[in-house]
Structure formats: structure tokens, C-alpha cells
Specification:
Order of helices and strands: EEHHHEEH
InterPro entries: Dihydroneopterin_aldolase, FolB_dom, GTP-CH-I_C/QueF
Radius of gyration: 16 Å
Bound molecules: ligand LV4SOB2L
Number of helices: 4
CATH topology: GTP Cyclohydrolase I, domain 2
Catalytic activity: 7,8-dihydroneopterin = 7,8-dihydromonapterin; 7,8-dihydroneopterin = 6-hydroxymethyl-7,8-dihydropterin + glycolaldehyde
CATH superfamily: GTP cyclohydrolase I, C-terminal domain/NADPH-dependent 7-cyano-7-deazaguanine reductase, N-terminal domain
Keywords: Folate biosynthesis, Isomerase, Lyase
Family: Belongs to the DHNA family.
Structural class: alpha+beta
GO molecular function: dihydroneopterin aldolase activity; isomerase activity
Largest sheet: 4 strands, antiparallel
Helix content: 25-40%
């Protein structure tokens, strides 16, 4: 299965467990991997036949700016749900990094994978993804 990536998407967010974190915005970074069949877009050179990484980046940014979760786990779930439901992505990997959160570290993060790769293969065989 082919992939479309969004790497290093930076958004300032209201996020965190502690009281002081509810008063500030903190930098988060998103790495997204989405399974899709890029052959129809490649054959036609047509943006509407692939996953538009610009539109998806904008949608993630809007979601994150409007969210106020405590845990980056909750935000990762919300982002994966958005990508799967709004953009019809059958399988997605979402990594949410909070690089300033822990002293003496380069980064802390969570990563989730949601959906099924086999269902996208089924769609291609049945012609849905053509
Ligand atoms: N697995 C997680 N651990 C922690 C989180 C989190 O979102 N997921 N959050 C915090 C605090 O908000 C922290 O970022 C403050 O520095 C602690 N652990």
C-alpha cells in the first residue's frame, strides 16, 4: 500500500495535565502517515484523486487549535479520527510530539496506528479505490 506523509507539522496548543499548562500554549509537532493507492492520481496527474496533504494539514491545525485535551494520547486519537472520517483514510499512523515537556530530553511523544490495511486492499480489488 502506498503512503502520503505529513512530517513535522507544528501547532501551538492548549495541552497538559497540570494547572499551569491550562494557562499557556505549548508547541506540538505532528508526524502523519496515511495509506492510500496513489496510482489513480499518478496516472491522471489529478489532485482530487489523492490525499491532499495541504488540506489535511490545515484540518489538523484547526482541530488542534480548537482542542483543549490534557493528554497527547487524547489528541492523537482525535487527529486519527479526523483523518479517517473526513478524508476517508483506511489506515493512519499519528505521532504527537511535545518537545518541551520534559527537561533533559530531546522529545517525548506518543504514536498510534488506527484502521486496517487489508480493508484498503479489499477496496482496490473491488474497484472502490479506482
Ligand atoms: N503519556 C503521557 N504522559 C504525560 C503526559 C501526556 O500527555 N501523556 N502529560 C504530562 C504533562 O502534561 C507534562 O507534559 C507536563 O510537563 C505528563 N505525562
Amino acid at each position: 500500500m502506498d503512503r502520503v506523509f505529513i512530517e513535522g507539522l507544528k501547532v501551538d496548543a492548549l495541552i497538559g495535565v497540570y494547572d499551569w499548562e491550562r494557562e499557556i500554549l505549548q508547541p506540538l509537532e505532528f508526524d502523519i502517515e496515511m495509506a492510500t493507492d496513489i496510482r489513480p492520481a499518478a496516472a491522471s496527474d489529478e489532485l482530487s484523486l489523492t490525499l491532499d496533504y495541504f488540506s489535511i494539514s490545515q484540518a489538523i491545525t484547526t482541530l488542534v487549535k480548537n482542542a483543549s485535551f490534557k493528554l497527547i494520547e487524547s489528541l492523537a486519537e482525535a487527529v486519527s479520527q479526523l483523518i479517517r472520517e473526513k478524508f476517508g483514510v483506511c489506515w493512519v499512523k499519528v505521532k504527537v510530539s511535545k518537545p518541551g515537556a520534559v527537561p533533559n530530553t530531546r522529545n517525548v511523544a506518543v504514536q498510534i496506528e488506527r484502521g486496517s490495511l487489508s480493508s484498503s486492499a479489499d477496496q482496490i480489488v473491488s474497484g472502490v479505490a479506482q
